[in-house]
Amino acid sequence: MSMIQAPVQGLSAAAMLEVWEQGAGRHPLDQALLLLRYACPEKPFEAMCEWTIGQRDAYLLALRRQTIGDGIEGYAECPACRNGLEFQLSCEALLSSACTPDGTWKTVEQNGQAWELRGPNSRDLALAISAADPEQARRVILSRCVRRGAEGAEEVCTGADETALAGRLSELDPLAEVLIDLRCEQCGEQWQMLFDIVTFFWNELHTRSRRLLQEVDLLARTYGWTEREVLQLSEQRRGLYVEMALS
């Protein structure tokens, strides 16, 4: 199992705007890899594409923690009564809750047959999202991430085997699919919600980037500073100048 081996630096104000501008309108897969290029500039891009989704998301959680903070405040809507529900998560807690595989093949036994599995990576997902339907996408993932184990063994994979092996893939890389248990205080409905760090973090960056540009505009008009000069200010100092400019 692999863990994050080097400290992840948070995004500066200038880097945040660059990432947001470059990734606006792109697919979440591309946005995730773009964020990784800023989080891990010393890592080869081709190698990052081979990271399992759990590995990828572990780095994104670390980047989010360093950029915005550890606490995550989420919102969900009850599927039964549509009541709004707020919940809290922790980047550190999510990171410590599960180890992430390193992309190497692991041998498992299913229905008396040995199979080798590896966690899906960004390249696998890129092919899966182009599939015609979810079932075909699942088969794409299985075809790339599951192979016959014992040499010379007869490869017979039933529908039940496929379902079981798909479940084993999820067990192999638990951080790749984070499910949150929720309960509605109003009607008592209980359900699970998928927490996707890529979408959540990107929405946060979108909101913060727009606010940053508004602050740049205000301080440039008030003090005549350039965008670069405004972004070089610490968040605390920039906030104080914004307060004074608005007073």
Q: Largest sheet, described in full?
A: 3 strands, antiparallel
Counted by DSSP, the helix tally is 11
Low-confidence stretches: none
**Spatial gap, N to C terminus:** 54 Å
> Which of globular, elongated, flat, extended, rod-shaped describes the shape?
globular
Query: What is Rg?
Result: 22 Å
SS-based class: alpha+beta
Structural description of this entry:
The chain is α+β, with helices and mostly antiparallel strands and 247 residues long. Helix content is 52%, strand content 16%. The chain has 11 helices and 7 strands. The protein has helices spanning 13-23, 28-39, 45-49, 53-67, 91-97, 122-128, 134-145, 159-172, 197-223, 227-232, 235-246; strands spanning 71-77, 84-90, 106-110, 113-117, 146-148, 178-183, 190-195. It has a 3-stranded antiparallel sheet with strand order 3-4-5. β1 (71-77) and β2 form a beta hairpin. The protein is globular, with a radius of gyration of 22 Å. It starts with 12 loop residues before the first helix and ends with a helix.
Describe this structure in a few short sentences.
With 247 residues, the chain is α+β, with helices and mostly antiparallel strands.
Highlighted features:
3-stranded antiparallel β-sheet, alpha+beta, 11 helices, 247 residues, two-stranded antiparallel sheet
Please give the structural blueprint:
Elements: H1 13-23, H2 28-39, H3 45-49, H4 53-67, E1 71-77, E2 84-90, H5 91-97, E3 106-110, E4 113-117, H6 122-128, H7 134-145, E5 146-148, H8 159-172, E6 178-183, E7 190-195, H9 197-223, H10 227-232, H11 235-246
Antiparallel strand pairs: 1-2, 3-4, 4-5, 6-7
